Amino acid sequence: MIIRPYEPADTDALYDICLRTGDNGGDATALFADPRLIGELFVGPYVRYEPSLAFVVDDGAPAGYVLGARDTVTFEQRCEREWWPPLREKYPPGSFPDGTRDAYYVERLHESRTADPAIVAEYPAHLHIDLLPRTQGRGMGRALMERLLAALHEAGAPAVHLGVGAANTRAIAFYERMGFATLRQSPNGRTMGRPTS
Fold first, then answer.
1. ∠ CA(132), CA(100), CA(32), 5° rounding?
2. Residue 112 pLDDT > 90, yes or no?
3. Whole-angstrom Cα distance, residue 7 to residue 155?
4. Which CA distances in Å does 133 have to 22, 27, 120, 147, 149?
5. Do the Cβ atoms of 129 and 140 come closer than 8 Å?
């Protein structure tokens, strides 16, 4: 089991990992009519615009990843210009029945949401990390996170933040062990951050 830089041939596998960890760390395959939708939001723009900040756990096939954006504001602006418009055409409002997971993410896709300026002022980078069960509990999450933190630091990002759902208690405990502190909390989840060094 190794950690290596992302390669373009990994993209479909990373979309699949995103789906299989998309229910607060559990398998969301049965929750989506369109298996690529969640990956279009949480994998696609990162591997397109920040491929040097994408790292993969490989045990013969991709089994986990961490994705980062050095400057959240710049990344969000680029997505708004380039990534979201074709996806909004592909997935117009009403593409899926109300109340479905697909409909929820299509609604999010059509919102122009940006990170809290107070958070990104101090924690300008952000990340997403997902591991399939076969890699968990083996130090791969820590190794992935350390690899990305070093790359972000080298790229000039002083600190990084992430979002996590309230129900994903294993992830919250992992982030706390990695030195992340809670910056903001709501009933649905929390934003956590830490310096990159």
1. 35
2. no
3. 19
4. 13, 10, 31, 20, 23
5. no
Which pair of tokens denotes residue 50?
A: 């920040």
pLDDT digits (tens, 9 = 90+) for 47-84: 999 999 999 999 999 999 999 999 999 999 999 999 99
Query: How far is the C-alpha of 27 from the C-alpha of 174, rounded, in Å?
Result: 19
Q: Of 53, 52, 40, which is closest to residue 11 (Cα–Cα)?
A: 40
Q: Six-digit token pair at 116?
A: 């809290």
What CATH architecture applies to the domain 2-158? 3-Layer(aba) Sandwich (3.40)
At which residue do the structure tokens 């630091």 appear? 153
Closest alpha carbon to 138 in 86, 80, 189, 63: 63
Structural domain boundaries of the chain?
Answer: 2-158
Q: What is the Cα–Cα distance from 19 to 57, expressed in whole angstroms?
A: 16
Q: How many beta carbons lie within 10 A of that of residue 192, not counting itself?
A: 23
Q: What global pTM score does this model have? A: 0.94
Going from the C-alpha of 187 to that of each of 32, 85, 90, 165, the distances in angstroms are 24, 31, 32, 9
Instruction: Mark 120-140 as b/e (b = at least 16 C-beta within 10 Å).
Output: beebbbbbbbbbbeebbeeeb
